[in-house]
Amino acid sequence: MKERVLLQGVVSEVLFPNKGTLIPTEDQPSPSEADSSAGILYVEPKKPYGPLAIKNVLPGQTWLVSAHKNGRRSHEARPMRLLRRAPYEVPPLCPHAALCGGCCYQTVPYPLQLSFKQQQVQKLLAPVPDIAEANWLPIQPSPLTALYRNKMEFSFGDSEKGGPLTLGQHRRGAFHDIISVPQCRLVHPDMRRILAETESFFRASGLPYYSTHTHTGVLRHLVVRRSFATGDLLLNLVTTSGIAGKEALLTAFTEKLLSLPLGGRIGGILHTLNDSPADTVQADALQVLYGEPSLTESLLGLSFKIFPFSFFQTNTLGAERLYQIVRDMAGDVSNQTVFDLYSGTGTIAQIMAAAGAATVTGIEIVEEAVQAARENAAQNGLKNCHFIAGDVLAYVDTLTQAPDLIVLDPPRDGIHPKALPKILAFAPERFIYVSCKPTSLVRDLPAFVEAGYCIETIRCCDMFPMTGHVETVVLLAK
C-alpha cells in the first residue's frame, strides 16, 4: 500500500503554465480527515514541509492535498479538496466549471485574469538578457469573454468505466474521462445544440467510442467550426475505419443535423477516417457528407477560407486585435520584403501585403492551409504575396531575397532549434515573434539577443479568456 502525507496549505502563487506553489499552514489535519482512496494510506508528516508544487489551483486558495516526492528533494502536492476559496473568487458562469478541464479561471474576475497573465509572462521572461529595457505595453483584452470560440474539438468516451457514451471535454485531472458539456460557455448556442444532438444520436446507435487503451472502437471526435462573419457551421465527424458498412447511419446522422433549428446555416458536414493510435485529429481519408469542406471568415477587412485542417486562430474577434498589434509593431512596410514563417492560412502575410509590402513570402507545413492561403490571396486581390508548402526547417534555405521584416508565428513548441540559426542568418532589420506559449518564447528569445537584436516592445494579447493561455507579441530590432 502506498503511503502519502496529508497536508493543508495555501497557494502563494501560480506561474505559467498552471504551476502553483503551496505553502503548508501551521494547523494540519489528521489522516482520518482524508478522503478514502483505494490502495493509499495517509500518514502524518514526520517533519515540517516546505513549499510544494501543485497544479489546477488559484493563488490564495486553501487546499487539502496529498504530498509525495518528485525526485530526491522536491515534493509535489495533489489537490484533494478545496477548503477555502480565494477572497477575489466569484461564482462560475459555466455549470461544468468544477469538472471540465478547459477553463481554470472561471471563478476569477476578468480584469484579474488579465493581471495574472501579464504578471506570469513578465516573471517568466525576466531572465532573458536585456529584457529590462523592453517597453511592456498593457495586455490586450479579448472583445468577448464568453461564446468567443470559432472552433471546438469534442471527444467521444465515457465519464466512468462502463458508463454510457459521452461526447464532450476531458475531465479535469483525468485524461481518459470525458464529461458532457451541453452548457459550455465558450461556444455559440448552435454549437451546443449540435454537440447535444450528436451525443444523443450516437448513444442510440450503439457504436463504441475509440479507446486509447485498447485501440479498439469507432467514434473519436466531433470538430465544430463557426464563422463569426457569416454564422455558417462546418462539422467534422472523426471515426476509425471500423465504421465501414455504416453508410446508412452516416446518412441518417447528416439528415438529423440538417433538421436542427439553428440560428446559422450548416455549410458542410464532413467525415474523417483516422486510424492513428495517437489521440489527435488527423485524416487518413476525408469524405464530404454534405455541402462544402470550408468556411469563410473575415479579419481586418480581408476574407479567409478555412478548411477542416487549416490553422486559424480560435478567437476571431481576438485575432483581429492580435493581428492589429502585429501590424502596429511592423510600422510602415511600404515597398519592403517580408517573410511570414509558419504562415498557416496566410492571415499575417496577407495583412502585410495589404499594408503595402513589396513582396511577402509565407512558409507553412500543412499543404491544405497553403492552398487556402493561395485562394484567399487571390480572392482578396493580393498579387504581392506567395506561399510555399513545406517545413520551415527545410524550405527556409530556398529563400534568396533579403527580408526587411520576418514575422514568426510558430506552433506551441516554438521554433525548431535547427531552423533558428538559419532564420537569424537573414539578418533583417526587425523580427516580430508571435508566441502562443511563453515557455517556448523564453527559450528562443536569448538567441535573438545573442545575434545582436534588442527587445523593443512586448505586448500580451488575451485570446483565451477563462483559461490560463495567452499570446505574446515581441518586436525585436537591430
Q: Quick recap of the structure?
A:
This protein is α/β, with parallel strands linked by helices and 478 residues long. The protein has helices spanning 110-125, 189-205, 247-258, 316-330, 347-354, 367-379, 392-395, 419-424, 438-450, and strands at 2-15, 19-24, 40-43, 52-55, 62-69, 75-84, 135-140, 151-157, 166-171, 174-180, 219-226, 233-239, 266-273, 285-291, 295-299, 302-306, 337-341, 359-364, 385-389, 405-408, 430-435, 454-461, 471-477.
3D architecture notes:
- By secondary structure, the chain is of the alpha/beta class.
- The protein has three domains: 2-84, OB fold (Dihydrolipoamide Acetyltransferase, E2P) (Beta Barrel), CATH 2.40.50; 111-144 and 299-477, Vaccinia Virus protein VP39 (Rossmann fold); 151-293, OB fold (Dihydrolipoamide Acetyltransferase, E2P) (Beta Barrel), CATH 2.40.50.
- The chain is built from nine helices and 23 strands.
- It has helices at residues 110-125, 189-205, 247-258, 316-330, 347-354, 367-379, 392-395, 419-424, 438-450; strands at 2-15, 19-24, 40-43, 52-55, 62-69, 75-84, 135-140, 151-157, 166-171, 174-180, 219-226, 233-239, 266-273, 285-291, 295-299, 302-306, 337-341, 359-364, 385-389, 405-408, 430-435, 454-461, 471-477.
- An eight-stranded mixed β-sheet has the order 7-22-23-21-20-17-18-19, sandwiched between helices. Strands 10-9-8-11-12-13-14 form a seven-stranded mixed β-sheet.
- Helix 3 (247-258) links the parallel strand 12 (233-239) and strand 13 (266-273).
- Helix 4 crosses helix 5 (347-354).
- The longest helix has 17 residues, at 189-205.
- It starts with a strand and ends with a strand.
- The model has no long low-confidence stretch (mean pLDDT 92).
